[in-house]
Amino acid sequence: MFPPPYPIANHVSTEKLSEPLKAFVHQLSAIHIPTKVSEVLKYPKWVQAIEEEMKVLEKNQTWTLETIPRGKKTIRCRWVFTIKHDADGSIERYKARLVAKGYTQTYGIDYEETFAPVSKLNTVRVLLSLAANLDWPLHQFDVKNAFLHGELTEEVYMDIPPGYNTTQTGTVSKLRKALYGLKQSPRAWFGRFTMATKNNGFKQCNSDHTLFLKHRKGKVTTLIIYVDDMIITGNDKLEISQLQDYLATEFEMKDLGGLKYFLGIKVARSQQGIFLSQRKYVLDLLTDTGMLDCKPANTPIVQNHHLGEYSDQVPTNKERYQRLVGRLIYLSHTRPYIAYAVSVVSQFMYSPSEDHMNAVLRILRYLKSAPGKGLIFSKHGHLNIDGYSDADCVGNVIDRKSTSGYFTFVGCNLVTLRSKQHNVVA
Fold this sequence. Notes:
Structural class: alpha+beta
Order of helices and strands: HHHEEEHEEEHEEEEHEEEEHHHHEEEE
Number of strands: 18
Largest sheet: 6 strands, antiparallel
Radius of gyration: 24 Å
Low-confidence stretches: none
Distance between the termini: 56 Å
Strand order of the largest sheet: 7-8-9-10-4-11
Mean pLDDT: 85
Number of helices: 10
Shape: globular
């Protein structure tokens, strides 16, 4: 059997990384996480993780065992497994999480309002640019079992969790606290966290409700939270320390040290600045699509591509196309040079053809050429704001609409980017 002509090893290198970062990257890539309980039961460490999670749920009085009332239905649940890493890449612990199958809930019966704000990555990039230019520290914290702190106001019944031993027959779990997977869990948790943060003197930002600010004696402390992961930065070291102590009294917190890994994005900091990379995300994407050995492309999209909707086009797998484009949209947060190509293929989500799929695969081939590339926030010593925009002229060959794009820089670091087709013909 002949070796592949374009092995991924030719395009992946960790030579320029420090030894701790190199070990961390290799450890992330080598780990296999099980998906089925039957597979987990073969390994004592995973069984221990399930037992520890059950103890936490019982200690928190997440549910009570009751007989389900007539006319009520239960929701189902399942176990989700993951691995937590230390800063050096070694395995810290095996984690099992009980998740409710919220898609079996019924509106107006076991849930009402569900909306909870999610931090904008544009806001995160602004904070990183400030930290790089002003030498602010970046602290990362994790709230253990965050959703379990949310109080439920609805009447919710759930099946007995797999692995939970009870001698009572005909009983179900009546949830008292929120659980991961419930439709209202994010809202309940965020409401609880917002109340605690405001009680400590922080003000909620109007443009991004997940950002909290506190000004004291001419200094500023900022906190941004994404579900249960939070980043704290600012130039008031005393206030940062007091905030850490306060949050520890309200919730069970874990200090993850300096910011290293956030929302699937690897963060590396040096004297030159802060570097963001989704290397593992790219490699996982290439692996899932079977393109680890594909031929790399020099550009993410063909010049003068003329992609559009034609009567003689050959349809492709719609679900696969939408899934791939969705993953590329998230990847464009650290790979701005694929933003235009991703914007083009996003226009055909509802009726993709083979030509459109080939355009998506070309983006993947381009990513293979340098999976470790990313976005850097350098120290320039100022916070000037600059913006650039451009548009093609009648770029779409079908409806004659143009596509505009813009970039915004704070302190010479990219913080916002957008590429979007016009709604009308200009």
